[in-house]
Automatic annotation (TrEMBL):
Chain intervals with Low complexity compositional bias: 255-264
Segments for region (Disordered): 242-266
Record protein name field: Solute carrier family 40 member
GO MF, one annotated term: peptide hormone binding
Biased composition (Polar residues): 244-254
Primary site of residence: membrane
PANTHER family on file: SOLUTE CARRIER FAMILY 40 MEMBER, SOLUTE CARRIER FAMILY 40 MEMBER 1
Length: 568
């Protein structure tokens, strides 16, 4: 009897877990992220193939995507804040997947009839198809940004309730899913395109997104049903009707909104007044509404108590010390082949997963704010290996070679003009494209000590990097009031993209391998400045207790900064 009772209890626990809102969010996020990773990898390959093995279209796509999020991040976040949660999630899901499906069908047509399209109207029909693909793919990315904000930055907080430990575990699990799909999804679609064709790859991705959209839509609705608090949103007049339709018997139990129950660590004075409804004003007011929303969003971001924590995370994007096209291209010039690079990328993913696991453990022992401080120290300590690699044997670092020599040669030299297209666009691309094969085989290096130290530091630093990222993410979740979660996270995404663009510009100005050591030093300097900002935030919040892991943390204190106007 005891064994049967234990089995029933175990089965009941498993059933409760697999039907819980938390698990359903994991499933929906896994499906969404898998489709995103497949599409982000494949669209770069498709654009390269369409434009005659040139990276021009890939570079244009990367710039359009980055520029759009940079300009529209706050507006997207404001739209998330102003509308009911279920409507936002369903709309962004439908728009994102529909755009990917349309893009896939359009690419299938182009691959099938490329020669015929190139002959119509002197190739303008084909050019129009390229513009449509990039534009629709950009809309899909903006919808993906809205989905990420509403699910990862809002729904997760509501599902976790007031349990900070549960929120930390959910954030870590979501990040582990990101790491795994970032490796496995490109591998799957890459094999399909390798053994099939690009036409087959487009069809597979379109079919996947169609099926995934239906499943994700169902999962979102189930999560919404299981979490009545999702129907309560600050500033929404219809929240009572939503609660009544969802669960008529839960009105009394859930009358308190998440904003009231979670007691955010946000100062009431820092809330920025939103513009009035455009219905009360004329046409000019409505036309200028996006500009006011953009301005008020950035002002609201500046006035947050966690402003320096968010800025510290953005500064970490100003670095060449990651596994993108820049670092892998440099590694190839140093004699590493594709097989070794793939193993290093796998090790980097494992290191990132270790960082997410370490985050939950350190947070329980030392608290959330100190976890960020410890993670920053760990990341900077590991990056010192990268600085040492600049001066180690085998390093091509040479200050006597002008960092701008290659750029000047490409722009002025007639023989180099055909090469500028691939050189600059490969730097501007978002890292999804593969490194082009050089015309000549690179000579073997005398020593691999420099490149070994470089990648050892990059891989080891991923533990601190991902732990720090989770720390700042949870600080934003816990300290931004519910009515501003969307716009603040939208501005945070814009800041991240801005610093990411700056790091690509930095590489364009100094693209030769001899200057890569200088880029490493600049990157580590920006990472150090970012962590100095976080240290200021932590010290203002905890004082000297930031160094005492056994001391309990308290609510974030107001940070003294020059005030900006709170009305537009």
């Amino acid at each position: 009897m005891d064994n049967s009772g234990a089995k029933q209890t175990c089965c009941g626990s498993l059933r409760d877990f697999f039907t819980s809102a938390k698990f359903l969010i994991y499933m929906g996020h896994a499906l969404s992220t898998w489709g995103d990773r497949m599409w982000n990898f494949a669209v770069a390959v498709f654009l390269v193939e369409l434009y005659g093995n040139s990276l021009l279209l890939t570079a244009v796509y990367g710039l359009v995507v980055a520029g759009s999020v940079l300009l529209l991040g706050a507006i997207i976040g404001d739209w998330v804040d102003r509308n009911p949660r279920l409507k936002v999630a369903q709309t962004s899901l439908l728009v994102q997947n529909s755009c990917v499906i349309v893009c896939g069908i359009l690419l299938m047509v182009v691959f099938q009839f490329k020669e015929q399209l190139a002959e119509l109207y002197n190739g303008w029909i084909l050019t129009t198809c390229y513009i449509l693909v990039i534009s629709i793919a950009n809309i899909a990315n903006l919808a993906s940004t809205a989905t990420s904000i509403t699910i990862q930055r809002d729904w997760v907080v509501v599902v976790a309730g007031q349990d900070s430990s549960k929120l930390a575990d959910m954030n870590a699990t979501v990040r582990i899913i990101d790491q795994l799909t970032n490796i496995l999804a490109p591998m799957l679609v890459g094999q399909i395109m390798a053994f099939g064709s690009h036409f087959v790859g487009c069809g597979f991705i379109s079919g996947w997104n169609l099926c995934s959209m239906c499943l994700e839509y169902t999962l979102l609705w189930k999560v919404y049903q299981k979490t009545p608090a999702l129907a309560v949103k600050a500033g929404q007049k219809e929240q009572h009707q939503e609660l009544k339709q969802l669960s008529p018997t839960s009105d009394v139990e859930n009358s308190q909104s998440p904003e009231e129950s979670s007691q955010p660590l946000m100062n009431e004075a820092s809330v920025v007044a939103r513009p009035d409804s455009p219905k009360e004003h004329g046409c000019c007011y409505q036309v200028s509404e996006p500009l006011r929303t953009l301005k008020s969003g950035w002002v609201a971001y500046y006035n947050q108590n966690i402003f320096f924590a968010g800025m510290s995370l953005a500064f970490l994007y100003m670095t060449v010390l990651g596994f993108d096209c820049i670092t892998t291209g440099y590694a190839y010039t140093q004699g590493l082949n594709g097989s070794v690079l793939s193993l290093l990328m796998g090790a980097s993913a494992v290191s990132g997963i270790c960082g997410t696991v370490a985050f939950t453990w350190v947070r329980k022992k030392c608290g959330l704010i100190r976890t960020g401080f410890i993670s920053g120290v760990a990341q900077l300590s590991c990056l010192m290996l990268c600085v040492i690699s600049v001066f180690a044997p085998g390093s091509p670092f040479d200050l006597s070679v002008s960092p701008f020599q290659d750029l000047y040669t490409h722009l002025v030299g007639e023989k180099a003009l055909p090469e500028v297209d691939q050189s600059l666009t490969s730097i501007l691309s978002s890292g999804n494209a593969t490194t082009p094969s050089p015309a000549e085989e690179l000579p073997p290096l005398q020593s691999y000590m420099s490149v070994s130290l470089l990648f050892s530091g990059v891989i080891a630093a991923r533990v601190g990097l991902w732990s720090f990222d989770l720390t700042v993410t949870q600080l934003i979740q816990e300290n931004v009031i519910e009515s501003e979660r969307g716009v603040i996270n939208g501005v945070q995404n814009s800041m991240n993209y801005l610093l990411d663009l700056l790091h690509f510009i930095m590489v364009i100005l100094a693209p030769n391998p001899e200057a890569f050591g200088l880029l490493v030093i600049i990157s580590v300097s920006f990472v150090a400045m970012g962590h100095m900002m976080y240290f200021r935030f932590a010290f203002k919040s905890l004082g000297s207790r930031v160094f005492l892991c056994c001391s309990p943390e308290q609510k974030v204190e107001t940070v003294d900064r020059p005030s900006l106007p709170t009305t537009v």
